């Protein structure tokens, strides 16, 4: 593929191949072998995305905790074990130490408050959880349907573009083949005319020589 410049100083792309039409490699296996040897000799192209492909989005940019969790899942690391010490009610090691009893009492009150909060959350979940889950599933299904519809439209658009490209290349390839055939016929006709001219000139030279010989004999 080459580039040229039109009157508006905009680079115009000139395609020198028609992938949907050209079949030289199928017609001439030796060409295919040469191409494969050349490709094997060359290095692999860089695996870079097209410039129009947007960069990969950064997920959970505003939440370092979620980013860390995503990284953990991506690396297939196990969850750290739960810390169960805060759910325990250890007794003071020294029964005569008032400060240890105060700490144990604070821990017991915290555990009681935690259990009350769990009971409240369970009651709320039992009352509203099923409906909230249904709504959540409905929204997810709607999002999935929209994404699938967009994907299907993109596939159809891609198929349509490829179909138009194939039809255009087939039409242009047929025109090129017709022009090449016509060019070959014209070149063949020119060669035949040139050969006829050479033969005619040789015949004229022979007749002139014959005329000169006859004039000399008289």
Automatic annotation (TrEMBL):
Keywords, in A-Z order: Coiled coil, mRNA processing, mRNA splicing, Nucleus, Spliceosome
GO terms (BP aspect): mRNA processing; RNA splicing
Keyword Transcription regulation tagged: no
Coiled coil region boundaries: 98-210
Protein name from the UniProt record: Uncharacterized protein
Domain of life, per lineage: Eukaryota
Region (Disordered), start-end ranges: 39-59
Organism in which the protein naturally occurs: Ganoderma sinense ZZ0214-1
Gene Ontology CC: catalytic step 2 spliceosome; precatalytic spliceosome; Prp19 complex
Family: Belongs to the SPF27 family.
Pfam families given in the database record: BCAS2
Compartments, record wording: Nucleus
Keyword Phosphoprotein: no
Source lineage: Eukaryota, Fungi, Dikarya, Basidiomycota, Agaricomycotina
PANTHER family linked: BCAS2 PROTEIN, PRE-MRNA-SPLICING FACTOR SPF27
């Amino acid at each position: 593929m080459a580039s040229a410049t039109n009157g508006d100083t905009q680079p115009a792309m000139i395609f020198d191949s028609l992938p949907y039409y050209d079949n030289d490699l199928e017609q001439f296996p030796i060409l295919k072998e040469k191409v494969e040897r050349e490709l094997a000799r060359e290095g692999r192209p860089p695996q870079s995305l097209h410039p129009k492909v947007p960069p990969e989005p950064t997920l959970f940019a505003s939440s370092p905790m979620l980013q860390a969790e995503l990284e953990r899942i991506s690396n297939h690391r196990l969850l750290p074990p739960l810390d169960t010490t805060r759910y325990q009610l250890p007794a003071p090691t020294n029964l005569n130490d008032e400060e240890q009893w105060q700490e144990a009492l604070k821990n017991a009150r915290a555990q009681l408050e935690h259990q009350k909060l769990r009971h409240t959350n369970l009651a709320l979940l039992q009352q509203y959880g099923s409906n909230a889950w249904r709504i959540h599933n409905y929204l997810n299904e709607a999002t999935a349907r929209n994404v699938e519809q967009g994907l299907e439209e993109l596939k159809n658009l891609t198929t349509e573009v490829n179909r138009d490209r194939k039809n255009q290349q087939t039409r242009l390839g047929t025109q090129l083949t017709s022009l090449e055939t016509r060019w070959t016929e014209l070149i063949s006709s020119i060669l035949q005319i040139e050969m006829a001219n050479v033969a005619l000139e040789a015949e004229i030279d022979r007749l002139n020589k014959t005329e000169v010989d006859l004039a000399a004999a008289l």
